[in-house]
């Protein structure tokens, strides 16, 4: 299983977050760097994958962090190959 651990130090802006996600998870160059594009690439994952979100995602990104977590949850419900865990 692939495992990706997001680093909250890259959660200072939406742009930096999406650049971190693209680099870490090796998203294609056409990745749109927004939440709709994130959902699309997450639901396309074809091998067992775990994404670990930092516990301070909501604190670092505010409402965007709340929506980001929901996008990961929704994508994991749609794609059985994707699992998420939020650090405690």
From TrEMBL:
Q: Which family does it belong to?
A: Belongs to the barstar family.
Protein name in the entry:
Barstar family protein
Q: Which residues form the Barstar (barnase inhibitor) domain?
A: 2-78
- Pfam families assigned to the protein according to its UniProt record, in alphabetical order: Barstar
């Amino acid at each position: 299983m692939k495992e990706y651990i997001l680093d909250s130090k890259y959660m200072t802006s939406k742009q930096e977050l999406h650049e971190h996600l693209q680099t870490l998870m090796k998203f294609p160059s056409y990745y749109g760097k927004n939440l709709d594009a994130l959902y699309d690439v997450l639901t396309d994952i074809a091998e067992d994958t775990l994404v670990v979100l930092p516990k301070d995602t909501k604190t670092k990104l505010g409402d965007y962090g709340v929506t980001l977590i929901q996008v990961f949850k929704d994508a994991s419900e749609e794609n059985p190959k994707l699992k998420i865990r939020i650090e405690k």
